[in-house]
Amino acid sequence: MIEVEHLSKIYGSTPAITDVTFSVEPGEILGLLGPNGAGKTTTMRILAGYLPATNGNARIAGYDVHENSLAVRQRIGYLPETPPLYPDMTVEGFLHFVAQIKGVSAGDRPNKVTAAIERCNLEDKRRVIIRKLSKGYRQRVGIAQAIVHDPPAIILDEPTVGLDPRQIIEVRNLIKSLAGTHTIILSTHILPEVSMTCSRVAIINRGKVVATNTPENLMTQLTGGSGYELEIEGEVALAKQVLQKVAGVSLIESIPTTKGHQSQENRAYLRVISQAGKEPGKDIATTLVRAGFGLHELKRVNATLEDVFLQLTTEEKNFDPEVDLAADNEGETA
Ligand SMILES: Nc1ncnc2c1ncn2[C@@H]1O[C@H](COP(=O)(O)OP(=O)(O)OP(=O)(O)O)[C@@H](O)[C@H]1O
């Protein structure tokens, strides 16, 4: 549903993202996880058709985000970091307005608006002026405006940032309820967020995707074994199959080729993560050479993912539902 290939963006002379590649299958929630300044917003703005890439391409539902940006915008819902709301409109009035802009026919609008309001639990607020809503409710209106035209793909930039713990739980549950019928990318700098919400994670650091995996495998990767980087010569898919059978190997991923790491013909770079406590380096070398592959380099690598992980372990405030909800009911109006 969403395919991103070798995407790069350079602002002036500042590279914001470099050679970003990932894909999102229909119905999946992919978390784009990275520290501040990693390039999450840049990637999402390119996908939403608001920013041209410097290199590479991206397709949503088969449409190129640059060449067919109108078709793409009709097929996505986008929630930027700050929800684009008109504070003097009512929730319902605003959603009607957005539905109109998104090309929903006048006859379909009431049903679509009601569906978005129900989905986002906004029934009690439908006639409330947006400026009177709490931040949590505004965020729900932001999500409602992203889904009101029922797009197949939804892009959410840091959807829980600035919310209190109860609101965070509600917004996460809302996002999870959209999976299956929608394909979703959300960005976050909070590691626990992806394990709670996403089916797959792409970790982005300093503009590069450094790992893509399920949250479970990622945790193994982060807490488990050491890694090796290989430069091999031969058919890469076959090499991965061969390496997967080596005892002690946990994960194998391709390392994207960058300018400083120029690929030569028929050569590929792989990262192999070993299981905790295992040292499969020697067996990796022997197995590859016996299988007829050229092995130009095999080196241990520092656990780069662990470094990223350390930057991402943003703590969330411990949430005690009884205490926090009681306090919330006393004070908050929306
Ligand atoms: N308009 C711009 N002009 C110049 N540099 C920019 C611009 N927008 C972003 N950058 C730079 O590009 C890099 C990536 O920024 P981006 O906003 O995409 O990261 P992010 O992961 O979304 O971070 P955050 O979570 O802090 O929003 C950063 O170094 C940032 O300073």
UniProtKB/TrEMBL annotation:
Residues 2-231 form the ABC transporter domain. InterPro entries: AAA+_ATPase (IPR003593), ABC_transporter-like_ATP-bd (IPR003439), P-loop_NTPase (IPR027417). GO terms for molecular function: ATP binding. It comes from the Bacteria. Keywords: ATP-binding, Nucleotide-binding, Transport. Belongs to the ABC transporter superfamily. This is ABC transporter ATP-binding protein.
